[in-house]
Specification:
about 270 residues; mainly beta; 2 helices; 9-stranded antiparallel β-sheet; 8-stranded antiparallel β-sheet; about 5% helix
């Protein structure tokens, strides 16, 4: 896979296909490639006009995680132990439905599930056992949107170059739908606190991202009922330089762990 995530020692089975070396699951469509490597990390690679992934720097990465809430309220994301990962499904380049399990530091265990419905990928999971950890725990999915313009140095140049860059991104769009159905359209170009109430409201149920660097592709994420996600980013930076979406399910509304975060690339 052109936009790979290099694996470490792991127990998930790996593929022999040269395109997917180091991966447990893979899927190729005309719009994107999606894979989960043998360490449990996932990658979305939008396809360019030439039929190949646009750039290794533009891949959207996804982590399945357990988060611990400390007594002072601080949230700590626990590291997945790659050697603990197991799955009853074999490695495949035709992702359908697959489940894998693993542990994080502190021996808390989780289960992650992925499914494919004609190019719409759904992700979910749940905490299985707290292990030795005593503080409150929650299963989370972390989606990392990279800097959309990693090769553009014009921003650090003169006014002419700054205008050229502004023209380049003027049609970029980020649209968010809150869980109360209200919609907001944050600027991608202005310095933004993505973790603010003005961005996240009561929680986000849908996101649509269009950037010229994605060559006409639109990336969409949806949180099912009983779940939502929130955004965060580097303080004082514009959103086109990258941001994170953290998906969580509400245990009271989703006690069976059936809520899903899904995405499409169009």
């Amino acid at each position: 896979m052109a936009c790979g995530i290099f694996p470490a020692k792991a127990d998930l089975p790996g593929l022999d296909d040269r395109t997917w070396v180091g991966y447990f699951q893979g899927l190729e469509t005309k719009q994107f490639h999606f894979g989960v490597n043998t360490t449990g990390k996932a990658l979305i690679s939008p396809m360019g006009k030439g039929g190949d992934p646009i750039s290794s720097k533009l891949g959207i990465t996804i982590d399945f995680a357990i988060q611990e809430t400390l007594p002072d309220g601080k949230i700590v994301t626990k590291n997945v132990q790659p050697e603990s990962l197991t799955s009853e499904q074999p490695a495949s380049t035709e992702l359908k439905t697959v489940t894998f399990r693993g542990k994080v530091t502190g021996d808390a265990s989780f289960e992650a599930t992925l499914s494919n419905d004609r190019g719409k990928i759904s992700l979910g999971g749940k905490l299985l056992d707290p292990g030795t950890l005593k503080n409150p725990l929650r299963f989370a999915i972390l989606v990392n949107f990279p800097n959309g313009y990693p090769y553009d140095l014009e921003r650090a140049a003169g006014k002419k170059e700054e205008k050229a860059f502004a023209d380049k991104i003027k049609n970029d769009r980020l649209q968010l739908k809150w869980t109360n159905r209200k919609g907001v359209k944050p600027s991608l170009a202005e310095a933004t606190d993505a973790a603010s109430q003005e961005i996240n409201g009561p929680g986000i149920s849908a996101l649509s991202l269009e950037m010229s660097s994605y060559q006409g592709k639109k990336v969409e994420f949806f949180a099912s009922d009983g779940s939502s996600f929130t955004l965060s980013n580097g303080a004082g930076k514009p959103l086109h330089e990258g941001f994170k979406a953290t998906w969580l399910a509400d245990p009271a509304k989703d006690p069976q762990g059936r809520a899903r975060l899904s995405f499409e690339v169009k």
